[in-house]
Design goal:
The complex is a heterodimer of chains A (156) and B (112). Chain A is an all-alpha fold and 156 residues long. Chain A contains five helices and no strands. The longest helix of chain A has 32 residues. The radius of gyration of chain A is 17 Å and the shape is elongated. The two termini of chain A are 13 Å apart. Chain B contains five helices and two strands. In chain B, strands 1-2 form a two-stranded antiparallel sheet. The longest helix of chain B is centred in the first third of the chain and has 23 residues. The relative contact order of chain B is 0.20. Classes of the chains: A mainly alpha (156), B mainly alpha (112). The interface between A and B is large, with 34 and 44 residues.
């Protein structure tokens, strides 16, 4: 197993953690539980969203950094093959992944500021929309990364 | 940790300018540097591919980060009365518009 494969696996594991954290936070901010939760879904909604913010930033930066390190390998080894297979929508989806994650990186300072404690009520809408935007980016990138990895990933 | 009040202005302006600069950098190829993965070489500015593809993405990020940082720092120095008028929602509205713009820019991949 070479270094890139190890980094790709760690990148994927970090992405799973990030996906869980941002999904928890997004649900807690858009569909908060109004009463003590008993069910699984209710407990999922009732987490304290603010406590996830710093972890999400750290996970986003770490996942981004690892992705940046293994990106040249994709460019050299995977993309050429995917182009030869004429899988243009998949390549386009990966291009969007690259740009979406960059845009997301730029909003992290604002995301951190608006999620800092104590939460400012006047920024609730901004906080919710920044979180939803980051959640969309993380989900998109996770799914597209997974698809590309299935096409031309480990062992292929 | 309590950030200064001016950090809110910095953060909002940074998000806005970063997103706008990034999409311009991609469209016009304003990369601060080029990476050649096949040879593991870096070159200043935009260089043509050599012995394999050239990667500009890192350079676009660097360009955007520098421009956004300068813009954010300048905005943070604005008088408080002026800074308070900056709507915090710009921090998500502009990046979302830029994401939509990328979907339009890359539409040919999905329409072939």
């Amino acid at each position: 197993m070479n270094t890139t494969t190890v980094l790709l696996i760690v990148h994927g594991l970090l992405a799973v953690a990030l996906l869980g954290a941002i999904t928890h936070q997004t649900v807690s901010v858009w569909a908060p539980a109004r009463k003590p939760a008993g069910s699984f879904v209710g407990r999922f909604r009732s987490v304290a969203g603010a406590s996830y913010a710093n972890a999400i930033i750290v996970l986003y930066v770490l996942t981004f950094t690892l992705g940046s390190i293994i990106y040249p390998e994709y460019r050299l080894e995977a993309r050429v093959v995917v182009e030869q297979m004429s899988l243009w929508p998949q390549i386009g989806a990966f291009e969007l992944k690259e740009h979406f994650v960059s845009v997301g990186l730029g909003v992290l300072p604002a995301y951190w500021y608006f999620w800092r404690q104590p939460l400012a009520a006047e920024h609730a809408r901004t906080r919710a929309l920044l979180t939803a935007m980051l959640a969309f980016i993380v989900w998109w990138n996770f799914l597209v990364g997974h698809i590309l990895n299935n096409i031309r990933g480990f062992g292929s | 940790m309590t950030p200064p009040r001016s950090f809110a202005v910095f953060a909002v302006v940074f998000a806005v300018v970063f997103a706008i600069t990034y999409v311009i950098a991609v469209e016009k190829n304003y990369a601060l540097f080029t990476y050649h993965p096949a040879t593991n070489e870096f070159g200043g500015g935009v260089e043509q591919p050599k012995d394999g593809p050239a990667m500009y993405w890192y350079g676009w990020l660097a360009t955007s980060a520098i421009v956004a940082f300068i813009a954010g720092a300048l905005a943070a120095a604005l008088p408080q009365g002026l800074a308070r008028r900056i709507w915090s929602g710009w921090s998500w509205a502009v990046p979302v518009c830029v994401m939509v713009a990328f979907c339009y820019i890359l539409r040919q991949y999905f329409l072939r």
